Amino acid sequence: MDVNYSEIIQKVICEQASIHRSGDVAIETVFDTERHHYLLVQVGWTNGHWVYGCALHLDLIGDKIYIQQNNTECSIAERLVELGIPKDRIVIGFHSPFKRQFTEYAVS
Amino acid sequence: MDVNYSEIIQKVICEQASIHRSGDVAIETVFDTERHHYLLVQVGWTNGHWVYGCALHLDLIGDKIYIQQNNTECSIAERLVELGIPKDRIVIGFHSPFKRQFTEYAVS
């Protein structure tokens, strides 16, 4: 790998964190750099309502980045490519293995 | 703190991971020991269905353990108490701040 995949994933998640920050609800960046799980999670109470949800979840498995969850309006795969990750190193995890063959990205 | 809160949280999550492990769906233990976010997440495809969900999410904030999500059948608060955490150091995050005063646990 020419580029540091873990650092790029963390950069993308921090970018999204800055977009999603709002009011009472905390935006947690969760970086497990040992097991290579990276999440962005919204947690908190606002106006009497409990807000909880995973906005983004990326895993580094072997030499591939798996997008396991994307509840943002941004194409995280495209952003990863802009930052130097080849398309054949990106797997859209939430696409079925069958569907993946019809995208530009990796199957597994 | 007499006991290491981070280690106890990780122990509780590992216990639940061993219970929840099943077939094709991965159970990810996510431990961010720098920002003190600890999660257990189910991720994967099984029989053509995508499974994704946070089973457990605990945060260490100051000297308190916040239970932010518990989709297990176990009382994680009771398990934490068994392992030596005082009740006034445990916050049930998903209970509203109003409701918390009527439990044995901390309000914030």
Describe the structure.
Chain A has 108 residues and is of the alpha+beta class. Chain A contains three helices and five strands; from the N terminus they run αββββαβα. Chain A has a five-stranded mixed β-sheet with strand order 1-2-3-4-5, covered by helices on one side. In chain A, strand 1 and strand 2 form a beta hairpin. The first copy, chain A, is globular. Chains A and B meet through strand 1, strand 2 and strand 3 of A and strand 1, strand 2 and strand 3 of B.
Physical arrangement of strands within the biggest beta sheet of chain A: 1-2-3-4-5
Oligomer: homodimer
Q: What fraction of residues of chain A sit in β-strands?
A: 35-45%
Principal-axis shape of chain A? globular
The run of helices and strands of chain A is HEEEEHEH
Number of helices of chain A: 3
Largest sheet of chain A: 5 strands, mixed
Write down how many β-strands of chain A occur, each being a DSSP E stretch of 2 or more residues: 5
Note poorly predicted spans of chain A. Answer: none
Q: Using a beta-carbon cutoff below 8 angstroms, give the protein chain pair with the largest interface and the number of residues from each chain.
A: A-B, 24 and 24 residues
Helical amount among residues of chain A, as a percent range? 25-40%
- What number is the mean pLDDT of chain A? 94
In angstroms, what separates the terminal alpha carbons of chain A? 17 Å
Rg of chain A from C-alpha positions?
A: 14 Å
Class derived from helix and strand content of chain A: alpha+beta
